[in-house]
Amino acid sequence: MDFNMKKLASDAGVFFTRAVQFTEEKLGQAERTELDAHFENLLARADSTKNWTEKILRQTEVLLQPNPSARVEEFLYEKLDRKVPSRVTNGELLAQYMIEAANDFGPGTPYGKTLIKVGETQRRLGGAERDFIHSSSINFLSPLRNFLEGDWRTISKERRILQNRRLDLDACKARLKKAKAAEAKAAAEHELRLAQSEFDRQAEVTRLLLEGISSTHVNHLRCLHEFAEAQATYYAQCYQYMLDLQKQLGRLPGTFVGNAESTSPPPVPTSPAAIAAAAAAGPAVPTIPVVPTVVGGPNSAPAVEALNPDDVKPPASGTRKARVLYDYDAADSSELSLFSDEMITVYSLPGMDPDWLIGERGNQKGKVPVTYLELLS
To answer: What's this model's pTM, rounded to 2 decimal places?
Structure first.
């Protein structure tokens, strides 16, 4: 008990001495041992690394999980060291509703068929999102958290110890200056040597930890590359899924997929050249030359689907130019494959599905989907 009381009194004395030294430094009444410029630069870089890592971590969490309630739930599970339960993505939930609606309306109806196709694509998009979130959490978020909760805590602890050693050193210097008697000076010099030794040892330990920030940057750089690669893969998958969906919708008979007269916005060009061309051309004129016809009359033409594209002739009312927005692979010999950014000649024929046109490229001819075109005046 006596030993504990002595230790408690000693610790209280040390704490009081440090408090006095710190206060006098703030008031400009005591000298302070300054660290060298290289050490100060290491400290500044470490603080900057910690601050920016926290911001990047928080914003990446928001990007991957916009729902704040879900983020809080995941945080609590992580702190309790329990596995986070699997959560349905928004895309997967939307897919479920669309497919259930299709079954209710009738999966054989045009609307039901389209709901099923779109729902299946939404499910694939949701699965891609889940894989992206999982990959990013492991390869990017976890290393950032490990730095903040591991290396940074160690650095902060050693920096606090270094601060205390510096206060002890400066307090010993102040006592040596105030000592008058030879015996008091000798005792103060002895304390100063011990304090200087402790300070130098702690400064070296802290310096090594701060220099390790360079290795942290290298590790975070590698993780950042993995995050960017995962994000690129995710968006590439989404783009391909939507292209596949657009092709599927274009082939569904009687399905409305939008055309130049639709109130919905047209598909966004995917290439810089197409975007620039679309901006320069302005709004497309939604009129297509159509040969007048009377259904059932003597001059009525059969449906285009029953014609051989090689036998189709341009109407007397004329043709139009169109710019191709996306690549398109012909489904059969009656269709014409398209290449992004190319120019083709298009026209319509009586009885033709409004979602399709006849396209010509040199000697090649075939049906092309309207949604893949930008009609020019």
So the answer is: 0.60
